[in-house]
Amino acid sequence: MEDVPTFKIIFNRNKQYLNVYLHDISHETFNRKGGGRWAYFQSSWENPRYGLFGELHFVKSRIREDVVSHELLHVLIEWMWSNGFTITRQNEERMCEFMDELVRKFYREYKKINS
User: Under a CB-based contact definition with an 8 Å cutoff, are residues 21 and 43 in contact?
Assistant: First the structure.
């Protein structure tokens, strides 16, 4: 698949980023090459607090809100696990706001390439 990301999502107070790849292939080919059916998240397994956090891969023709939110939820959960974060009633709103940030930044960058 492609080496150059289609765009990046910068998050966590500009300390981390995700590379996002939109693949112009059928979902059957995408699945055979190791992806999910329409998308997948791959953690970078580098430093969980700074720099590249991971990659999001999508079949370009299958971008939908539910697919995007599903993969971004994987990102949120991986971020929580890699930082030893446990969700509680006290920090639940903070995690919802973090998810809002990921979704907002994804669509801001996505709209730039589709306008």
Answer: no
